[in-house]
Amino acid sequence: MGGFHTFPVERADALEDPSRYRYCSREELVSMLGLDDRDDSTVADLGSGTGFYTDDVAPFTDTCYAVDVQSEMHETYREKGLPENVECVTAGIDSLPFPDDHLDGAFSTMTYHEFSDPAIRSFEGTTDSFHDEALAELARVIRPGGRLVTVDWSADGQGEDGPSVDERFSISDVRRGLESAGFEVIRDDDRPETLAIVAICPE
């Protein structure tokens, strides 16, 4: 079961607002993905929208998939202009059309709350007994040792931008969700309004 909702297509222009870099810059994203010195990787942008961050990451990859459940977002992205190495994929994160271990990495910017299972917020068991379909699918398609980068609105933020606080996850929620799917969290930063987590796919 996924999160609350997807971003409204009629507000797609807002996804091109340069002020988004206040919360995550191109440099930070590329660095967290470990793409600084390689250009032969295959990476997916999870919940790509109009391709705002896809455009930033694509030059550092061989192939960058723009994954979004809304085909209308891809249409908007195509009208804007697709980089040559970007392929649009219309799919939910819990049912990705990739073979096992196909991706070297994947990232989501402000979309984790849209696809992850909100039940983790109230889950009191061990992470071994929690199953998030979207995160399990990411563990399947990212190669062993590949990176999953998550930047999202934090439940500990003020809620002045982005979704309401009750739709967000805390950094501990995200960490527990990732660990339940077998990921190893190697970095977690809780910032004033957002969180950033880098996780390694299980070997």
From TrEMBL:
Sequence ranges assigned to domain Methyltransferase type in this UniProt record: 45-149
Organism of this sequence: Natronosalvus hydrolyticus
Organism superkingdom: Archaea
Keywords tagged on the record: Methyltransferase, S-adenosyl-L-methionine, Transferase
Protein name according to UniProt: Methyltransferase domain-containing protein
Gene Ontology molecular function, alphabetical: S-adenosylmethionine-dependent methyltransferase activity
Pfam families per the UniProt record, alphabetical: Methyltransf_11
A GO biological process held by the record: methylation
Phylogenetic placement of the source organism: Archaea, Methanobacteriati, Methanobacteriota, Stenosarchaea group, Halobacteria
SUPFAM superfamilies: S-adenosyl-L-methionine-dependent methyltransferases
